[in-house]
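Side project, low priority. Logging it here so it doesn't get lost.
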Amino acid sequence: MSAFLVETTDTVATVRLDGELTVEEARALQFALRTALLRPRSLTIDASALARVDMAGLQVLLAAARGARTCVAPGAAPSWADALDRYGLTSEFASS
C-alpha cells in the first residue's frame, strides 16, 4: 500500500497517511497535493495510521497546508504529534 491516499471533493482535499511518510514518498505526495489544491480547497490530514514521518514529508504537508484555505489534522497518531513537537510545528496544524 502507498504511504498516502489523496481524495478530493469540491471543497476539501483529504490526505490519508499510512505507515511511513519519508523522503522516498515526498515527491509523489507533493505532486498529488499540488494537483488536489489547484482549485481552492480546505485540507484535511488524516494521520491516524501514520507510524513515522520525516522532515521531507512534513515539509510537503506544511507547504500544502499553507496553500489550502484551511487545514485540520484530527485524530492523529502519536508519531504525528511527536514529529510536530520535535520540529516546532505544532502551531502550524490545527487539531480539529
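Brief comment: DSSP finds three helices and four strands in the chain.
Revisit when time allows.
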